[in-house]
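Dear Dr. H.,

I hope your travels went smoothly. While you were away I took the liberty of generating a structure for the chain from your last submission, since the lab meeting agenda had it listed for discussion. I wanted you to have the full record in hand beforehand rather than looking at slides cold. The sequence, exactly as received, is reproduced here:
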Amino acid sequence: MKFINNMRFALIIITLFCVNALSAQEIIEDEVVESKVKSDSLNDNDRLKVDGVTAVVGDFVVLDSDIDKEFIQLQARGVSTKDITRCQLFGKLLEDKLYAHHAIQDSININELEIRSSIEQQISTFLETKGGTMTELLEFYNKDSEASLREEMFEINKNARLAAEMQRKIVSELEVTPEEVREYFNSIPKDERPEFGTELKVAQIVVIPEISEAEKQRVINKLKEFKADVIENGASFTTKAVFYSDDIPSRKDGGKYVLNKKRPRMVKEFRDVAFSLQEGEISDPFETDFGYHIILLEKIRGQEYEIRHILLRPKVTEEAKNAAKEKINKVRERIVAGDLTFAEAAKEFSDEKETKNNGGQLINPYTQDYSFELTKMDPELYGQIQDLKDNEISLVLLDQDRINDIKYKIITVTDRTDEHEADFAKDYLKIKNLALQDKQIREIAKWQDEKINDTYIKVNGDYRDCEFSSNWLKKEKQ
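The corresponding predicted structure, in token form, is as follows:
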């Protein structure tokens, strides 16, 4: 499967572009930094070396210590680095800087406030998953303060975002025709065609407990009180967001977001209210799928609107929960008794708009079809269906999503396809995705070759002896 393995390796590299560290330093100096660090040499022998500029790419430099940081980032994500060489990571850093440099040249904008918010989430996630402390985190990253850690993480995330946006721009308009898909499939040697694992089609019926009108009004009245307290008594909108908002990601920043008229973010109802306000104005309470909000517009900077908001989500009563459970239990009983099919019941009773008119069939978010490969299925979904036989109905399950804190569902497996070699007709959408990815890889490689020739690049010292897949040394091709 050499052909497919090469393809997968290239896709992994593209994915790493979007998530790996990019510690950028925008001072071009070919000088040595006096601090010494312990690290692997190019020949994988331990030695003491001086941290200096190993390369310059456009407006960016790559320090020897940046490669050490790359190893730390990979290890932090649980990636084994025993088979990864310094030369490989060095080549990856050169690519990262090339993308980031040209993203700046192309005036690609990124939201710095959003990046700083994501840093807090990354730190929280790291501490939760590793069960560690901030002190241990600082030791892991070799930092002496939280401020220096956050600043380095900001640079890492900022430049990673620049690189990702640059790559997205390169391939944004690429498409593949049916003929290109066929040509791609036929170009794969028969003994190297991909194997697709066991696939399932899954359907569900969802019942969401109803929110009472009295509870909705209670929330609206509370938001009106917040607004009045800010306007009439000078209370702090930011403080109220920190203490009361149900929007957890923004709560630490006092409910702050930056919206851009040219780059839609948030649901339409939210944007419409935000863009209708004047600076310093607070909206009346309004509803979205997430609950009820009020918005304070703090500042307008061209196309950007700096806002704060408070979200309150109405509570579900025990009576509503019991009514929802009773409803879905009765639906299940009728399906099991043969009074109606699962698809008929989904259309009639399901509260999930996205699936009810398709017989409750779930859509795979990665392939946009109805099939889920068993080994790549979301672990939670897999746990819910792993013991189900075809067309068997699950017991009532308690679930939640980003909009509904509580919902009840029943689930069934409607079809099962055993592991098989890729078939053009049966697996067309998957093959189309592979063909598009192959085209994107070739387009990115073409772009990279062109930009390497057009960009100031200097590789220093022993790193010139690395074997690169790209022409970073700008040698004339034989």
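Two observations you may find useful: Residues 16 and 223 are 43 Å apart (CA to CA). Residues 1-50 have pLDDT under 50 and may be disordered.

With kind regards,
E. W.
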